[in-house]
């Protein structure tokens, strides 16, 4: 059964990316203490196996030099403190490599499932954690039962591995009584390291169950109601009325820029009244004619008025105007299928502006469109 929030709504929706980011900023990330414990224990066992000889030889050297002082040094109080400080420093240097491995693993292990999260909010005191009632709920609730189950699982797993190791090492333990001191210490150290590593590794079995459970619990805790998802979308994307207003302002700005570019057009192809498309072609800088402005209805009328005001030629070609309007966006080149039709119009406009012979009127073209643009022509007719 899905959880409910304070308003009684069921939390049936998976947490959104924003919800997960906000939770991480608050320090709420999945954590598995069982995984952390297992990794630190295994790192300790590995460090002991690698640095045991180095640490042992270093301690032996320290003890030899410490228990063989000169007689005069024993009566020098300041020198005794100097020797003690040197011994402490040498001891720290001996265990530094081992401590470094354990420290790195202890810091890196939590990041395996939840990543690092540094948040002052997580360290802030919370009165609800001091509530005895909520403390009892945690102890005797589902979470308390899960923790009890994990504790029993650890005891069972570690105890089973310990019994198995005792059975495997019983022959070697008996052999210790018949060997010398040095051989006995070496054999005992070997058994200790193997047992420590095996017991530490056994904790990974518990962690393998705990990690998926912690990930599930984390997502379950952050689940959202449908209303919370809607509210978040409004906060992220803005309310519909605000978005509509912004879109309207953007369209007004774009329309203003479009109108400013009309004086630069070479021709405005009209419907004649319902559509208007302003084109420009610069053969030195453009591969094909480009749409500077387009509009329908009142906007088309304004485009024509501006064109006439700035002496931009108007060319009436209803099918071509509708095809350009529906197939080309602002500041884009016209489709390849309309190259021939537009070229005929531009050639006519250039001839009108600069006739080959003064007083000669060029023949007005009647541009034909490819069949593929027939549907756009019909769309235009339906809207009129």
From TrEMBL:
The lineage of its organism: Bacteria, Pseudomonadati, Pseudomonadota, Gammaproteobacteria, Chromatiales. It comes from the Bacteria. Residues 1-30, 355-384 are annotated as: Disordered. SUPFAM superfamilies: EscU C-terminal domain-like (SSF160544). Residues 8-30, 363-384 have a biased composition (Basic and acidic residues). This is Flagellar biosynthetic protein FlhB. It holds the Pfam family Bac_export_2. The keyword Membrane applies. The chain crosses the membrane at residues 35-55, 87-119, 140-169, 189-216. Required for formation of the rod structure in the basal body of the flagellar apparatus. Together with FliI and FliH, may constitute the export apparatus of flagellin. The gene is flhB. It is a multi-pass membrane protein.
């Amino acid at each position: 059964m899905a959880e409910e929030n304070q308003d009684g709504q069921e939390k049936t929706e998976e947490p959104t990316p924003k919800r997960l980011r906000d939770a991480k900023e608050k320090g709420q990330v999945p954590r598995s203490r069982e995984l952390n414990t297992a990794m630190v224990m295994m790192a300790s066992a590995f460090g002991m196996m690698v640095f045991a000889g180095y640490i042992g030889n270093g301690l032996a050297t320290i003890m030899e030099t410490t228990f063989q002082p000169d007689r005069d040094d024993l009566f020098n109080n300041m020198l005794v403190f100097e020797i003690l400080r040197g011994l402490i420093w040498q001891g720290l240097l001996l265990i530094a490599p081992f401590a470094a491995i354990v420290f790195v693993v202890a810091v890196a292990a939590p990041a395996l499932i939840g990543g690092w999260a540094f948040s002052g909010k997580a360290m802030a005191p919370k009165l609800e954690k001091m509530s005895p009632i909520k403390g009892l709920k945690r102890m005797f609730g589902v979470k308390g039962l899960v923790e009890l189950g994990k504790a029993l699982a650890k005891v069972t797993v570690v105890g089973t591995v310990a019994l198995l190791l005792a059975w495997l090492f019983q022959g070697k333990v008996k052999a210790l009584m018949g060997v010398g001191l040095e051989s006995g210490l070496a054999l005992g150290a070997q058994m200790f390291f193997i047992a420590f590593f095996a017991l530490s590794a056994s904790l990974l079995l518990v962690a393998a169950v705990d990690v998926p459970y912690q990930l599930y619990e984390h997502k379950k805790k952050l689940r959202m109601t449908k209303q919370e998802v809607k509210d978040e979308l409004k906060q992220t994307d803005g309310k519909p009325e605000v978005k509509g207003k912004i879109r309207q302002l953007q369209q007004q700005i774009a329309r203003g820029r479009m109108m400013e570019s009309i004086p630069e057009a070479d021709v405005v192809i009209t419907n004649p009244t319902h559509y208007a498309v302003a084109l420009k072609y610069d053969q030195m800088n453009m591969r094909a004619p480009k749409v500077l402005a387009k509009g329908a209805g009142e906007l088309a009328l304004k485009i024509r008025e501006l064109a006439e005001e700035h002496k931009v030629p108007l060319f009436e070609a209803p099918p071509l105007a509708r095809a350009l309007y529906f197939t080309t966006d602002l500041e884009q080149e016209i489709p390849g299928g309309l190259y021939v039709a537009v070229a005929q119009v531009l050639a006519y406009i250039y001839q009108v502006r600069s006739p080959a012979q003064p007083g000669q009127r060029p023949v007005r073209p009647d541009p034909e469109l490819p069949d593929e643009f027939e549907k756009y022509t019909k769309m235009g007719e339906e809207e009129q």
